[in-house]
Specification:
- There is one protein chain.
- The protein is built from one helix and eleven strands, in the order H-E-E-E-E-E-E-E-E-E-E-E.
């Protein structure tokens, strides 16, 4: 069972990393990253109204820590909470799922080598190859076990939020705007 979970996690990680590399290369070749003026890689808006973090980056209390490190932070969000783009960017992936065992997510590519990933989404309201502006609604939160798009690694409703710098997951908290 643990090997199966590791395989599922690695498949998701490979998909995310591969898509980011390919889309960033394509955008750079077309000089489209220069069109994103708002995301300089330093400050991101909170994607949910909540600022309550239930599991931090690489948190020791992560229920699947014995399988893999937690690659983002989990933000408390009731099922169906609107999710906002943390900065202006390009929708590289909008993976929609029709089963609870499939992990739905949106990946945005920003300038400055930054990408953001929004996971356990119950509904996606953007399309791939679309530009979004900071604060645009990109989907609705999910994560309730057994619901569409929750994926295999959930314990309750929340948003899994990742920040990637040059393709590597990093702690999102230092990037977040401190507005409280």
């Amino acid at each position: 069972l643990v090997d199966d979970l590791r395989s599922q996690y690695q498949a998701i990680e490979n998909e995310v990393a591969g898509i980011e590399r390919e889309v960033r290369r394509r955008l750079e070749a077309q000089d489209k990253l220069d069109d994103i003026e708002d995301a300089d890689g330093t400050l991101l808006s909170w994607p949910t109204p909540s600022r309550y973090i239930t599991c931090e980056f690489h948190c020791a209390g992560y229920p699947f820590a014995h399988v893999f490190k937690h690659s983002g932070m989990d933000i408390r969000a009731a099922q169906g909470t609107p999710l906002k783009a943390a900065a202006s960017g390009y929708v590289a992936r909008a993976k929609r799922c029709n089963a609870s065992t499939c992990y739905s997510f949106v990946m945005l590519i920003h300038s400055g080598g930054i990408a953001t990933v929004y996971g356990h989404i119950s509904a996606i309201t953007v399309s791939e190859d679309q530009f979004v502006t900071r604060g645009d609604t990109i989907g609705l939160s999910g994560g309730t076990p057994g619901t569409v798009g929750a994926g295999p690694f959930v314990t309750g409703p929340h948003l899994h939020f990742e920040v990637r710098r040059d393709g590597v997951p990093v702690d999102p908290l230092p990037f977040m705007i401190r507005d409280y």
